[in-house]
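To: structure desk
From: M.T.
Subject: fold request, one chain
Message: Could you run this one when you get a chance? Sequence is below, nothing fancy, just the single chain.
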Amino acid sequence: MIRNVARFNTLFATLRRLLIGFFCLQCLASCSATGPLFSDAGPVPVDKGRVYVYRPDLWAMGVVRALISVDGTPTFELDNNGYSVLDLTPGAHVFVHTWGKKFYTTDVVTGKPVTVTVDVKAGQTKYVILRSQANSRLTDFSPTPTMRTQYSWQISEIANSIGQEEIAKTHYQAPLPAVVGTK
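Reply: Done. Structure tokens follow.
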């Protein structure tokens, strides 16, 4: 019995060290956007609508770059705490988010695109947010505890009042070069 308790304590201590190390590595490696802090892009052209896309500073999936396409065209690569802006012709536009590939991502993560359709109106501004979260819990205590983490994410249009407040804390990242001026 004492041997089993000692073994459990040793395994739990090892697991704890690994989790702490992973957390520290995650904090150090979290790729946050480093461009200039948010500033308004100026007046919206009368024949276009403006869409700001942003990713608040969140821990979950923070080290993985977010890939966002608009109407089937790769448009943005957003790091954690980043934003970008695009002027679009009026009408419905489909924003699709996928995660970039890293050595530790799998098709479970990269193969799950999420979408939102934004109805763009001339002269108006819209905000689209990418949120992610992680829920972790210890399970399967026999013979050793196991940490299970479930990640989730969504891309959605958000109220202008909330978008204006949240985007103020993010950093600019330019749209992909092939996109600038084409929509």
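Reply (cont.): The chain is about 20% helix and 40% strand. Let me know if you need anything else for the meeting.
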